[in-house]
Every structure is written in structure tokens, then in C-alpha cells.
Design goal:
The protein has 322 residues and is of the alpha/beta class. It folds into 2 domains: 3-133, no CATH class; 146-154 and 172-278, Ribonuclease H-like superfamily/Ribonuclease H (Nucleotidyltransferase, domain 5), CATH 3.30.420. The chain has helices at 3-20, 24-36, 90-102, 109-116, 120-133, 200-210, 253-270, 278-290, 296-306, 315-318, and strands at residues 50-52, 66-68, 74-75, 146-154, 178-185, 190-194, 216-220, 234-238. A 5-stranded mixed sheet has the order 6-5-4-7-8, sandwiched between helices. The protein has a 3-stranded antiparallel sheet with strand order 1-2-3, with no helix packed on it. The longest helix has 18 residues, at 3-20.
């Protein structure tokens, strides 16, 4: 998007969304505008010959239906999005999108529950759907230039007790915490993934999938990275084991900055995130990092566009792990 186009998008969205968060008709029209712009289309057949259905008095149909004159189908802006089949008013969806996009460290389902006066269970599923909408936005191209790769471990601090001697107090590699692996392009995007382990075999499959062969790789001196570097133009190592953290332009501080924001959000905003749902929160922080140069209005618009073509049914995030 050109710089001269950014301010109108920001002003338009930020002017409209406060009203959309309080009025259902305004919310529907706001979502329609963000999804379709000036050219509404049937989500069933893609037909452009569509019209709004009225209530007989010239106003909108109470269900905000559209009719497709190509296929004869009726539809709403919800069809084919993460909020399809949701009974939650769209004004609450607008509020949740706004809060999730404007809060650097995210917003908890408990906070949305209080602000929108809905149950915690409803708010949690709502936020999971929004995180799903944020998945893989700006995440389809390979990282280039200088790319930093690093991992961190997510989980609570070890608790004390009578048998403290038997508690594993290690915080990094070798713990039972969940590893999160990130690849960050300097001044560019991040790709972050929950991984089963940080072996050369696991990382060796992930990195070539997300990083262009011409990239210059920066890692610490962990042994798993050594055989992976040969797949790229060059591989520079910063030796943390001897207290070296920067050597010229060789460092992994950008990746560590992403992890710092991630952990502040997970521990400060969400407090406790299960391993089962961790990947959804990772997608949310990845989205905000990749849109960090955008303003709130652009970020909201991009997140709502990301809801198109995605479905997350209730049983998926609530199903018990095998």
C-alpha cells in the first residue's frame, strides 16, 4: 500500500469502528465494506449481480440478507468467514477485532467477556476465531536478506514445595516446557511455530520452507543449527556460551525482541496458555509483529480481510487431545 493511501484507510476505519462497536446495523455495514469494498460478491458462486434485501419499508432486512441474481442464493457477510454460524452480534466481533489489533500484548478473553457482557466461554471461542483469522497474513512469502533464527521455551516457572529437591528448575533447553521456534527477517516479517523439539531434523525441515536459499542466516552456536546452515548463502554464529551476543552485524537480538513481546503477552495478559492452544496465540503475536509498521486502522482492516475463507468450528478448539 502506498503511503498516500494509508492515511485515508486509517481515518476511515478508526472513524467508523467506534460506531460499529455499539450499533448492529453499523457493524454489519462496516464488515461488508471491509470484506467487499465497493463490489459485494456472492460467497457461494462469486457472482457480482447481488442486491440487499429489504424489510418492505426501504430498510435493511432484519437478518441483513443479500440476494444473488446469478445463482439465486441468499447470503450475509458472515458466510464463508470465521464468524459464519456465530450468534454473537457483529458489533461484538468489531469490538474484539479492534481490541486484539490495537493492543500490543493482546487482550484476554476475560477482558472481552467483561467489556461485552458475554460469557467467558463465548469470549474465548470468539478470540480463538479472531486468532485464526490472523493466521498466515503476510506469511506466504519466503524470508530473505539477513534472517535470525532462535528458539524459546514457554511454560510457567517451577513451583516450590516440600520436595523441592526433585523439581526441575532449568528454564531453557532440556526442560519439559514447550519450544517455540522463530525466524525473523531483519526489518521484515517473522515466522513463528510451536515445534515438538529443536533437533536438526525438525528445524532442518522448517527453515528451508520459510527462508529463501539466498538468505544469510544468524543463529547462536546450538549444535542443531550447524548442519542447517549449508542450505543457505551463509551462516553466521554468535557464541552465547562464551558471553558473546553481538559481533558486528552478527546477532539474534531481533528474534529475542519478538520473544520478549510474546512472553510479556503470554504471562502478563493471558497468564496461562495451554500447549493445545499455544499455536493460536503464536499466530496472533506473529500477525501484530508483521503489521507493526501499519497503524491501528490498517491492522483492523487486514485482520477482518483475513477472516474471509476461513472456518473454525466449535469442536475444533474444544476437542480433547488424543
Amino acid at each position: 500500500m502506498k503511503n498516500e493511501d494509508k492515511k485515508p484507510v486509517q481515518d476511515e476505519v478508526l472513524n467508523e469502528i467506534p460506531v460499529a462497536c455499539t450499533d448492529e446495523t453499523a457493524a454489519v455495514e462496516f464488515m461488508e465494506k471491509q470484506r467487499w469494498g465497493e463490489h459485494p460478491a456472492c460467497p457461494h458462486c462469486g457472482g457480482m449481480k447481488v442486491s440487499k434485501m429489504t424489510d418492505g419499508n426501504g430498510g435493511r432486512n432484519k437478518r441483513f440478507l443479500w440476494r444473488c441474481h446469478d445463482g439465486g442464493e441468499q447470503f450475509t457477510v458472515r458466510i464463508g468467514t470465521v464468524f459464519e454460524d456465530s450468534r454473537i452480534p457483529l458489533k461484538i466481533w468489531c469490538h474484539a477485532f479492534w481490541r486484539a489489533c490495537a493492543s500490543k500484548k493482546g487482550v484476554s478473553a476475560l477482558q472481552i467477556s467483561r467489556e461485552c457482557r458475554i460469557s467467558y466461554k463465548t469470549a474465548l471461542f470468539l478470540m480463538h476465531r479472531i486468532r485464526f483469522a490472523m493466521t498466515e497474513i503476510r506469511g506466504d512469502g519466503k524470508l530473505r536478506g539477513i534472517v535470525e533464527a532462535d528458539e524459546t521455551y514457554v511454560g510457567g516457572k517451577p513451583r516450590g514445595g516440600i520436595n523441592q529437591i526433585h523439581i526441575d528448575h532449568r528454564r531453557g533447553r532440556g526442560t519439559k516446557k514447550t519450544p517455540v521456534f522463530a525466524m525473523v527477517e531483519r526489518d521484515g516479517d517473522v515466522r513463528a511455530r510451536v515445534v515438538p523439539n529443536v533437533t536438526a531434523q525438525t528445524l532442518g525441515k522448517i527453515m528451508p520452507r520459510h527462508i529463501h536459499p539466498s538468505a544469510r542466516i544468524m543463529t547462536d552456536n546450538y549444535r542443531s543449527y550447524i548442519p542447517i546452515g549449508k542450505h543457505f548463502a551463509s551462516h553466521d554464529v554468535v557464541r552465547h556460551n562464551i558471553g558473546e551476543y553481538v559481533r558486528g552485524d552478527v546477532y539474534s537480538n531481533t528474534a529475542e525482541s519478538f520473544f520478549a513481546i510474546l512472553k510479556r503477552g503470554l504471562y502478563g495478559t493471558f497468564h496461562a496458555v495451554s500447549k493445545k492452544h499455544l499455536h493460536r496465540y503464536i499466530h496472533e503475536f506473529e500477525f501484530r509483529w508483521n503489521t507493526r509498521h501499519a497503524n491501528d486502522g490498517e491492522r483492523i482492516a487486514e485482520a477482518i480481510k483475513g477472516a474471509d475463507g476461513k472456518r473454525l468450528r466449535y469442536y475444533q478448539p474444544t476437542a480433547k487431545s488424543a
